[in-house]
């Protein structure tokens, strides 16, 4: 078989072009997934009012229930969903403020000093009475006072960076989730094809020739980061697909098996004693604090003492209402709840979830390992290391692709390398620039913007997309040298901008809040804010060093840079 038609050249084509086309999406997944490891800490940096120590779950009856009763349906969700849910044949739609609550929920985590709460408001006169006809309202509660946080305060870590890694914050028909799913599948293909390409995995595990100029150094770094974190990359691509498979990618229970799904819900309600629908008879709510105490007693009796992490009230104000209390699982990897369910009107135990099956155990362990709700800081930092290695692997793949083709394209007057390089700059440095720019805007923008302008949270999102778009335009504008087989100056210019913005973000945080590093590290230690500041300074240092190295005149003739090209020709197309 000829070398041009064998297995390895075929795998090289798959690895190169699949990686190039969807590598930009994967880069965003890895980068923002890495930031999501410390999303709650980024929230503390972005919201100075929440910079206090994590609190125990407050009294539900005295603190949380009054806060839940103050919630209102989200205006944007009401405008979007109400026309499709309401049946106009039964009269005009119910005003937003008059929608009755049907469910409440409360979520607490060991890394977050504030409490997330939400409500689902029932839509009367619905088109489909059996559907989940809810308009939602969410808020954040200060557990010390029960006060609701500002509705326009954006939790940048958990509400922007975290969903960015699985949805690209592209919510139109869930297009971002489907695109990320396709990219995750392609990543598995790229990993398998990469293993076939690199037969000498053990040698490449220890190979990094930083003093070797040109393509060889780039390829060594690409191979090393890919091989060293190969199990991490494969695991997260696979479990990411697994988590969303049943709900988004193969939602057979909502289409082909909808009737069977509905029958199973009704059967489960009969078996567990948890009512599936409202009875239509008003009923009071017993003490939820007493139910939480009973749940803790039962967990302790099963040798798994712990605190409540998630509380949900179903069919609020109805005789069929019940309260589900789930154990906080921060002391274990598996995402388990050990739910105990109580009748809302009396507090009597209706159902205690039995031991899980082996299949459920495996599923919950894989899900928990991906979502990392556990309290294990060493493992979290290993996640950060693996995520950063993934971003470096993809970024060096982009650079190698351009370096290898830049001179041949220049001789043939083709524009392919120029386009690929501009896209790489936009994805690699442009994404970091947008992230740091958003944090700078968070410290610069006032809480109240003038009438007619978006609120602060929306303005921060616009700054993020605006910075990224400007980075893309700048990369394209400065890419002309690539067509002459020279480096794109946008790389060094955007690295310099990242360095300046990173230092500016730390300085602005100190000026606007008083929480400078001397305070957060020494006089009044608060590691969530200190950690973000130190990460920004580290990012600025790396970006500044890269800008300086790229700015220095080339120390060798251009012909030498092309030398290693032939030696690595076999490895990648």
Please characterize this protein's 3D structure:
- The chain has 573 residues and is an alpha+beta fold.
- Helices cover 56% and strands 8% of the residues.
- The chain has 19 helices and 7 strands.
- It has a 7-stranded antiparallel β-sheet.
- The radius of gyration is 27 Å and the shape is globular.
- The two termini are 18 Å apart.
Map the helices and strands.
Elements: H1 7-36, H2 39-46, H3 60-69, H4 75-85, E1 101-107, E2 115-122, E3 134-141, H5 156-167, H6 175-197, H7 201-205, H8 215-228, H9 230-249, H10 258-272, H11 288-301, E4 308-314, E5 322-327, E6 340-343, E7 349-352, H12 358-371, H13 377-411, H14 416-444, H15 456-477, H16 490-513, H17 517-523, H18 527-551, H19 558-561
Antiparallel strand pairs: 1-2, 1-4, 2-3, 4-5, 5-6, 6-7
Label this structure with key terms.
573 residues; alpha+beta; seven-stranded antiparallel beta sheet; 7 strands; globular
- What oligomeric state is this? single chain
Gross geometry: globular
Question: Helix count?
Answer: 19
Average pLDDT figure:
88
In which order are the strands of the major sheet placed?
3-2-1-4-5-6-7
Amino- and carboxy-terminal Cα gap: 18 Å
What Rg do the Cα atoms give?
Answer: 27 Å
Q: Which parts are unreliable, with pLDDT below 50 for 5 consecutive residues or more?
A: 554-573
Q: Could you describe the largest sheet, including whether it forms a barrel? A: 7 strands, antiparallel
DSSP summary, beta strand count: 7
Strand percentage: 5-15%
Category from helices, strands and their pairing? alpha+beta
Succession of helices and strands: HHHHEEEHHHHHHHEEEEHHHHHHHH
Helical residue percent band? 55-70%
């Amino acid at each position: 078989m000829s070398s041009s038609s064998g297995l390895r050249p075929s795998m090289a084509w798959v690895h190169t072009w699949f990686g190039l086309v969807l590598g930009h999406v994967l880069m965003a997944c890895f980068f923002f997934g890495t930031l999501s490891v410390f999303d709650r800490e980024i929230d503390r940096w972005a919201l100075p009012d929440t910079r206090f120590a994590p609190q125990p779950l407050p009294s539900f009856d005295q603190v949380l229930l009054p806060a839940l009763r103050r919630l209102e349906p989200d205006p944007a969700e009401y405008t979007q969903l109400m026309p499709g849910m309401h049946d106009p044949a039964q009269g005009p739609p119910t005003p937003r403020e008059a929608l009755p609550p049907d469910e409440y929920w409360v979520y607490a985590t060991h890394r977050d000093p504030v409490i997330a709460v939400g409500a689902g408001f029932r839509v009367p006169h619905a088109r489909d009475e059996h559907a989940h006809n809810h308009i939602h309202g969410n808020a954040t509660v200060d557990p010390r006072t029960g006060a609701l946080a500002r509705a326009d305060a954006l939790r940048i870590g958990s509400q922007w960076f975290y969903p960015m890694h699985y949805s690209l914050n592209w919510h139109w028909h869930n297009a971002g989730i489907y695109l990320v799913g396709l990219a995750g599948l392609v990543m598995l293909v790229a990993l398998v094809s990469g293993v076939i390409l690199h037969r000498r995995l053990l040698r490449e595990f220890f190979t990094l020739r930083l003093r070797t100029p040109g393509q060889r150094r780039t390829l060594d770094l690409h191979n090393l980061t890919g091989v060293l974190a190969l199990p991490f990359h494969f695991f997260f691509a696979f479990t990411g697909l697994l988590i969303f498979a049943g709900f988004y990618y193969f939602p057979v229970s909502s289409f082909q098996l909808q009737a069977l799904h509905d029958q199973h819900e009704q059967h489960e309600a009969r078996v567990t004693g948890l009512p599936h629908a409202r009875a239509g008879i008003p009923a009071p709510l017993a003490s939820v604090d007493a139910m939480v105490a009973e749940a803790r007693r039962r967990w302790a009796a099963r040798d798994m003492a712990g605190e409540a992490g998630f509380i949900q009230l179903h069919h609020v104000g109805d005789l069929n209402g019940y309260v589900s209390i789930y154990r906080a699982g921060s002391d274990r990897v598996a995402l388990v709840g050990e739910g105990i369910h109580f009748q809302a009107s009396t507090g009597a135990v209706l159902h205690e979830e039995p031991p899980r099956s082996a299949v459920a155990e495996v599923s919950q362990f894989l899900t928990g390992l991906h979502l990392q709700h556990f309290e294990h800081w060493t493992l979290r930092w290993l996640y950060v290391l693996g995520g950063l290695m993934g971003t470096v692997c993809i970024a060096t793949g982009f650079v190698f692709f351009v370096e290898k083709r830049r001179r041949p394209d220049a001789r043939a007057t083709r524009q392919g390398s120029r386009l690929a390089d501009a896209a790489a700059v936009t994805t690699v440095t442009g994404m970091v620039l947008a992230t740091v720019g958003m944090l700078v805007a968070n410290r610069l923008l006032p809480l109240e913007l003038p009438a007619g302008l978006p609120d602060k949270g929306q303005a921060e999102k616009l700054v993020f997309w605006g910075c990224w778009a400007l980075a893309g335009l700048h990369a394209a504008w400065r890419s002309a040298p690539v067509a002459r087989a020279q480096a794109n100056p946008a790389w060094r210019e955007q690295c310099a901008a990242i360095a300046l913005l990173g230092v500016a973000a730390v300085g602005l945080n100190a000026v606007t809040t008083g929480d400078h590093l001397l305070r957060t590290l020494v006089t009044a230690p608060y590691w969530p804010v200190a950690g973000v500041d130190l990460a920004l300074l580290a990012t600025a240092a790396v970006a500044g060093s890269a800008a300086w190295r790229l700015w220095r005149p080339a120390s060798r003739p251009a012909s030498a840079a092309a030398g290693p090209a032939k030696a690595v020709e076999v490895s990648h197309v």
